[in-house]
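ok so I'm stuck.
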Amino acid sequence: MTARVFLAHQINGLVELYNVTIITNLNGNRSILDNISNKANIIDLPIERNINLLADLRALFILISIFYKNGFSLVHSVSPKAGLLTSIAAWISQVPNRLHTFTGQVWVTKEGVNRQFLKFLDKIIATLNTNVLVDSFSQQDFLINEGILSKDLSIVLGNGSISGVDLKRFQPSKMHRNLIRKQLNITDDCLVFLFIGRLKKEKGIFELVEAFKNVRKHHDNLVLIIVGLDEEGLKHELMLRLEKFIEFVRFVDFTKSPETYMNASDIFVLPSYREGFGSVIIEAASCGLPSIGSNIYGLSDAIIDGETGILVPVKSIKDLEMAMHLLTKNSKMREEMGRAANLIANDKFSQNILTDSLISLYIDLLKNDHIKIKGS
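replied:
not stuck anymore, here's the structure
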């Protein structure tokens, strides 16, 4: 899913210059990468998201074998588990250029030994790679202060984010607005809050539901759309907590067209406990939506507080409720923030900027290794 949702544009640019191989867990579904050029080689490797010692060791040995066999000039990993295994395998295999992208830290919300252990694993990733990408400046500062990274070996591409925004896809559309509202039985006069993300506690989904209930008591014609996979089986509990307000909430499973739901909505909300950047924020911004998000590293790069949206203290239902109430009653502020968000997304976060920056980095790193460049 990471390759499909975030990396396709970059991969499709890289295959025009290099021989590119994607190593990922397809879960038996090759079509998941149908938006990636068939010029890329694909190797299906069952790397599991959670810790599984035997499965992880097997994946590590397979990666080492693949790296030795192919003699890659550069290996680039994304996501914590894949990053750890890839870093070790590429270091053992002596791949000359080892690159990892940090997109947020699991250990930020942990405590005690668990936090220290996961933090240590990130330190291994940073140490074994020759360069490290970070998808936001605030995350880079955090990792430097925590002793994970050094300033000289960490890079933020463009203005941040893992992939930027497809401006042709994420743009205001009255057609999508009307279509989705009709499908979800939402009238034109309703003001719609939108959440898109995995249904996980650390996404602040429970705080959002409680805040929405409180705001809905004071404002008629408010609807909340919740879009995302129910990874932790939370939907039933969320529905119970909503009580009589359940009729004003629409649940939607994973969608390949998040832009349609953004266009059907008026305010985007992401009260997450941790984010590397919050790409969904700038996608919503490109559709003209102001956002309410937690004041944490990552989201503080995606939302300009008071200009493109509102930042609130993490886990604070009261502050989240106040921000939702403010944008509900103040249509002028909502519209001005939406316009500002759209302008900044278009000006600073186009996916072309990120792809061009990544390709330039590859060219710079591989300037002394012409073996893998097509046509050389």
